[in-house]
Design a protein that fits this description.
Layout: H1 5-10, E1 18-22, E2 28-40, E3 52-65, E4 79-82, E5 90-92, E6 98-101
Antiparallel strand pairs: 1-2, 1-5, 2-3, 3-4, 5-6
Length: 105
């Protein structure tokens, strides 16, 4: 099981917390934390490339700035799943105070 930095961060915040997520591509959204769950990459469990990881669901409330991130089902009013594969670079509260920043690699 892979726990990305994002999944570890949201363990500490209550459901329905409203946040601003920002990626280095410029994509910035206001969203509400919904839940997290176990998910996988849709390969057979005996496939050498199989991965199981923690997914985090957010309800998109507003697209503040568009960017070129590949996020399935992306749009206002939709639930989106983020994980260690597509986690944002910065998470802020609604006052734009940084709560979490992705570690530099």
């Amino acid at each position: 099981m892979i726990w990305g930095e994002l999944a570890l961060f949201v363990e500490k915040i209550p459901t329905s917390t409203r946040l601003i997520l920002k990626w280095n591509s410029g994509l910035t959204i206001m969203c509400e934390f919904d839940t997290q769950h176990y998910t996988d990459n849709n390969l057979d469990e005996d496939d050498p490339g199989y991965e199981e990881f923690q997914g985090v669901l957010f309800l998109v409330e507003e697209i503040i700035q568009d960017g070129n991130e590949e996020i399935v089902n992306f749009g206002v009013g939709n639930l989106i799943e983020l994980s260690y594969k597509n986690e944002p670079d910065i998470i802020m509260d609604l006052n734009r105070e940084v709560l979490w920043k992705k570690a530099e690699k």
